[in-house]
Predict the structure.
Amino acid sequence: MAQVTLSGLRHSYLPDPKEGQDYALKEIDITWRDGGAYALLGPSGCGKTTLLNIISGLIVPTEGAVLFDDRDVTADPPDRRNIAQVFQFPVIYDNMTVRENLSFPLRNRGVEPGLIEQRVRETANMLDVTGILDRRASGLNPDNKQKISMGRALVREDVNVVMFDEPLTVIDPHLKWKLRSKLKELHHRVKATMIYVTHDQTEALTFADEVVVMQEGEVVQIGTPVELFERPQHTFVGHFIGSPGMNILPCEARKNSALFEGHEVALEGPLGGQAGELTLGIRPEHVLIAEDGIPATVAKVADAGRHFIIDAVVGKSVVKVVDSRNPPEKGSIIHLHFRPERSRVYRDGWIATEPRT
Amino acid sequence: MKTENQKAWLFVLPVLFLVAFNALVPMMTVVNYSVQETFGNNQFFWQGLDWFEQILRSDRFHAALGRQFLFTATILAIEVPLGIIIALSMPRQGIWVSVCLVLMALPMLIPWNVVGAMWNIFALPKIGMLGYFMNDVLGVSYDMTQDPLAAWITVVAMDVWHWTSLVVLLCYAGLMSIPDAYYQAAKIDGASAWSVFRHIQLPKMKTVLTIAVLLRFMDSFNIYTEPFVLTGGGPGNSTTLLSIDLVKIALGQFDLGPAAAMSLIYFAITLLVSWVFYTLMTKDDRR
């Protein structure tokens, strides 16, 4: 178990990178506490798998260092880093039984047979696969195969960090939540540092204590699930997290408020900075349908089960509103109230308002 | 509700028709010959199973069968491991992949009788490059027209040259289907190169290897053209494999009855051995 520090990490797949675009990862500095549960969240191609492979040692970064506690492991190959990784598609050794699969990483490291037996039993217990220990691994269904993959990662006692690379992609939806909660439970039991890579916000937010949101090779925000939802540092985070994502609306700056489609909107606090393109960000959950406020025309009402998602048109912009009461008729005029403490202005994508204290 | 009817049979008919004409009818003709004696003029005399008995008791058949098994076992023992080794050492990406694939495919594109003729000229002492090199440069006595061992080595070398590529290409396809994650996981699990081969590459190649071994078994067991052109079965009878012997009996001696009986026995052996192979190699999968 170890604290993982990434310092000044940059990586390019090109032999001679020059501009920022050449880099798959641009300047990453993160510290991951020993024993924490972290998620790397971002869309496909944002560099999260690259980052993971750098930590596991499958890729050597172009610049920067990877530290486990105080040891620089940047140049170490995977087997010398003492890490474990679970891949997107279950990796199992077809010609072995489940038991042999689980003991494989230990046998390769010359662990004594008695201890192997004990570790395999404990791991199998944790994953509820004790009953199939002597079955051939090749005949198992995908979720059991993925459990065996996880088992091989967890069977070693002293791993520095366990990494998961979108491990639930191939799992049936109805089994996903089971494995997801299993993972959470495993983290509580083994107390290893765990890093979970996913593009699925539900997986990231349920698993992690802290989520790292990435976009185009950059970290846009690191925070707890609540922080990411409540106060996105970047419009990307606001849009990517939440369903539907945050409304990102064109606006102009006034002194301590914003002007949206000719209507004044009160903000959480004073606006800082100069120039740049301004946008107003507010979550659909924080737009209220009120007696008076900004007039809007209802363009669409979608039933999302427990609530309705209303597309309200103001001028040229569409504001999404989440409301759980009886929805207004399509075509009718409603009035919108933006909750001031949740209304923020973003400058070139980055948050520009400060909360009032 | 599923409706059941017999319409599906209609769709099988065309295949049945084709198979009947290119396999069943010719084969039944052979069966017909194998139980009768004929002297031409479409006159047939019933012989029962006499020809079968004669063939099965004949020393000549035993010798040819022995040579056949020896030949097939030898080429399998060389081509399968060699094919795996070549496939493992082939590049996985870059322009060399295409170069290697084309080079590998070349021998298989050459017509069989041409392969035989090529190797014949290649191996002839004095005029052939191989023959000249062995005799006059290395000073090793090598004459496949006189020495049975030299003839055998040449026939085996020719088959290895001609067909190892098939094993290589099939194994390579099997290897390419292994996702990178397997190699990465093996690295993280601390597996040695041998472990990677034993537990990842070999199991993933198993299906294609089964096919490769079956194809090479059947092809080499029925081999005719290449050794016929290369050695004509000689010197003496030393490289007279089953099919060469069969043609000698059928067309050389015009003993159609015994030849027909022999082809049926030959067929049965090929079928039986293929089945045994297949059953052994896939028995794990059915567990």
Remarks:
- The CA atoms of residues 194 and 259 of chain A lie 44 Å apart.
- The interface with chain B takes residues 53, 56, 58, 77-79, 83-85, 87-89, 91, 93-96, 104-105, 108-109, 136, 138-139, 149, 152 of chain A (CB under 8 Å).
